[in-house]
Amino acid sequence: MQTIILKEKLTINHSRSLTSGKISSQLLFLAIPLLMGNIFQQFYNVVAAIIVGRYVGEEAFAAIGVGGTVMNLFIFILMGCCTGVSIILASLFGKGDYHSLRKECFLAVVFGAGFTLVVSTASVFFLPLLLESIHTPPEIFGYTQSYLNIILGGLLATFFYNLCAAALRAVGNTKYALVFLVIAVILNAALTFVLVAGFGCGIAGAAWATVFSQGLSAILCMGYIVKKLPFLVPTREDMRYDGLLLKKTIQFASLSAMHQSSLYIGKLLVQGAVNLLGTAAIAAYTATGRIEGISLAFGESGSESISVFVAQNTGAGNRKRALKGFMEGVSSLIVLGVFMSFTLYATARPCVTVFVGAGQTSAIAEGVSYMQILSFFYVLSYIGSSFVGFFRGSGRINIPLIGTTLHISLRVILSYWLAPEMGLKAVGLATGIGWIAIVIFQLTVFFLGRRREEKRDPFTPQGQPEVSSEAV
């Protein structure tokens, strides 16, 4: 009887099964809110950068850029953990095992919160050493440390929002996570302006506004789940230790976190190469990073929608539908990637000028050269994102980790090698070469897997994904 009631609740428009129906419309239904959410997520740091740059100065603006790279490293560790949990949740949802679904939610909350507190404490303690290791210039060191002490101290709010958003994605609900995020972004913009421009709180005011806004989005998201999606809320019966489920949670969360964080560790190392080029290059890289973050949000949203679709159908044991969804998703992202490449090349100068100001001629020149080189490779980034969604959704989350490590290794080595002679455009070229390498690797793994399909099924017989210990 309880199962019947739960299934009746699932017919309400607060969750969505992806195991039947028109694939293209379902992917679009998932991707649009995810895209808008990813773009709005960029505004947390973008708004702070613009306001601080206008009302505090160029050094503070550069500090936001360095601080944003460090902040993203820790945030994407937590986001990676939540992404790993969402794959398990989506598989259990597709299978219809709601008891295990709630147990997974309980384990993720308890152990995830504990992990986040450890990360938050350690990151604040080791922050000065980290900033020194990436060659943070002395003139912006104090600004950067002040900003990051507050941001990293509030990571628990970031974790709870991302965990709730991951749970909503797993059950096909991407709409309301977006609603709460938009509210938080608007509040963040208002608070940043009031604290920085109105009360003169400087860069610390921008940090406090970000933490408060993320905390609010977490509270709103949790309240919505309790009221509208009670089948996700653990009962006393669900609040029990499950060693096997915890082991799977740790495996998926850790590999996903390593995948996400490896990308930003690489960006952090690249930031070190950029820091050696001077304040103008740092400001240019900060500006182009904001633009790049927004443009790459399209590929990331497509990746997330493919991942949820594949995971739900994997859980339901429908391997052919999962593969068909991936093929439709990658085709759409290729078209979008070509369009984005032309758009970014044509609008490079006005986009960079918006962030650094018309008077910063050296920063504008550096930023334009970087963007125009990078624009030739964007379609490869979108293809790579599609494969990440497929491998992650099918449980082979070690493949995205290996591919990203390859990409980042090339990007860092080439950036340090070429930047002294070529300036910031060397970083763009290094990034593009990294994308070429990762797509070649992903295509090789995919087609070898297809060739072995009859001998070895990449999905478990029960339809739940498992972590493969093999790269291929």
State the helical fraction: over 70%
Order of helices and strands: HHHHHHHHHHHHHHHHH
Determine Rg (CA atoms, Å): 22 Å
The secondary-structure class comes to mainly alpha
What percentage of amino acids are in beta strands?
under 5%
Give the number of domains.
1
Largest sheet: none
Distance between the termini: 44 Å
Quickly count the helices. 17
Mean pLDDT: 83
pLDDT < 50 runs, ≥5 residues: 1-13, 457-472
Shape summary: globular
Tell how many strands the DSSP assignment holds: 0
Describe the structure.
The chain is built from 17 helices and no strands. The protein has 472 residues and is mainly alpha-helical. The protein has one domain (16-451). It is globular and about 60 Å long.
Structure characteristics:
single chain, 472 residues, mainly alpha, globular, disordered N terminus
Summarize the structure.
This protein has 472 residues and is an all-alpha fold. The chain is built from 17 helices and no strands.
SSE map:
Layout lengths: L1 H9 L12 H33 L2 H38 L2 H28 L1 H7 L4 H16 L1 H16 L4 H24 L3 H27 L14 H33 L3 H37 L3 H28 L1 H9 L4 H14 L3 H16 L4 H25 L2 H27 L21
Helix pairs in contact: 2-3, 2-8, 2-9, 2-11, 3-4, 3-6, 3-7, 3-10, 3-11, 4-6, 4-7, 6-9, 7-9, 8-9, 10-16, 11-12, 11-13, 11-14, 11-15, 12-14, 12-15, 13-14, 14-17, 15-17, 16-17
